[in-house]
Amino acid sequence: GNSVTQMEGPVTLSEEAFLTINCTYTATGYPSLFWYVQYPGEGLQLLLKATKADDKGSNKGFEATYRKETTSFHLEKGSVQVSDSAVYFCALSVTGTASKLTFGTGTRLQVTL
Amino acid sequence: EAGVAQSPRYKIIEKRQSVAFWCNPISGHATLYWYQQILGQGPKLLIQFQNNGVVDDSQLPKDRFSAERLKGVDSTLKIQPAKLEDSAVYLCASSLVDRPYSPPYEQYFGPGTRLTVT
Q: What is the mean pLDDT of residues A81-94?
């Protein structure tokens, strides 16, 4: 079956620190990979995505590269801000499965001044 | 463009009572999803509609959960009777219909309904 494993949180960083949130996956078929973000009191929002191996998704300073050989899609940001404090979810969807998303458990990021 | 609307935002009920949630997707989105997000976990798909037909309901506890999407637009999700373990956030999402053999379209999520069963 399909599954996503994320590093456990919470992750606490000082502002301007480097962020990495690890994500690995298993999939039957060829997946597209996603990072969703959930800010406090808000719904899930798509942060970035990659649909084939070696693609790099990027948005708002965040990046993630689809690594088929290591089945990974780690989220990175060079300099986090307090406003990045949120819960981040890694997810996958296998082409041909009607877009069903399989999510990881989420990683809470807390950025302090 | 209006986003996905859900109501109510919060609901508290006692176990064995019934509850219903409503979702209005983005205009033109034929695909609609209901997810259950238990505290500390990622969202889990309960049911997926395309227009008013069910595409996937393999993880819907059909003895107590039901969902419908009349006229292929709005949808309701019902729980009857509720159990303590149903306490969760229920998320509705919508998307365009995927093209065969192409990467999936983005799903847009509503704000969710937080259900507490006491």
A: 95
